[in-house]
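ok trying this again, last paste got cut off
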Amino acid sequence: MAALLLPILLGMAGMAVDVGGYASDRRQLQNAADSIALAAAQDLPDATAATSSAQSWAAKNNVSWEDVDFSVIPQDEDNPNPKVVVDIERSHKFAFMQVLGLGSRDVSAHAAAVKTSPGGMGGLTPLAIVAPVPAPGTTVPIKLDASGGCQTLAPGNCLAIRIDGNGSQYYQQDLTYGSTSTVCAQGVANCTGTAPTKACPTSSTCNPENGNLVKATKDGVNYRLANTDPHCSSFSQVFTSLPDGTYHLVSQCNPWLPGSYRSLQVLVVPVVTGFSNGNSNPVTIVSFALLWLNGFTNGGCSGGNSCQVQGTFVNANLTVNALAGVYDPTSSIHFTRLTE
């Protein structure tokens, strides 16, 4: 009986080994396809640079470029975001199933990734920047005060907006911790805002928060400055400049990555079309901007009319918790995402 069953048992064992090896090869190939697509998408819309990155990451994953079918799909009316598509197919050799006449079988993987701009997100700082966004590296006031431009911008408005609710308590809460509600950029069809209508009448419009808001601003900004980890407490620690004029956000200081240092000086703010007088004329959100919180101008927020906040604008590709919108080359935030 043992002699009769031995070939069957060996065949079953061999099949288990070969099937397991095939599944493992398929999983590794899919991981390779995903990493190649994400790496290449970082360089979009430059097809040449994206192809070069794809080839580099194929080599890092021990994938022969001859086994890769790589394509770049540009942004057009049918594709709101530039896209890369990666298909890998190669032969997987079996060890034991050859005795059954099956020496090898093709194994394949598919991945696609887009480069996009945020279409909507939460965790926002309730300070709105009037479009167009300054050039990367520019340091400007991001919250005005009565002596520094509030009346010039629009009577009663100092760049503060409402997101989670009306009043200085909501403004301070959002300035300290980031908004709990989601707001959307204008024209993003697949985004649904969650802010209360008294603060934001529509998904992409929010009311201004009038006044100088000295105490709320002082407490909120001081909290962020005091609670940022020392590893991420300076611009040079958090951002590195790239040859193309953009910046790289160091992963250990990326507040959207699990396990990163507490870096509360990295902010995302809404970009709006402009302010009108009073607080009953909502501003329209057109995009989002990334910036570094420098702190107060003139040494602090002393009370009265003196409480102006300063920030440095950054243009970067990063990992961020945001809804994919439409790729905007002028946006200061871009991120890649697997779509297939």
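PB: full thing came through this time. Residues 2-115 form one domain.
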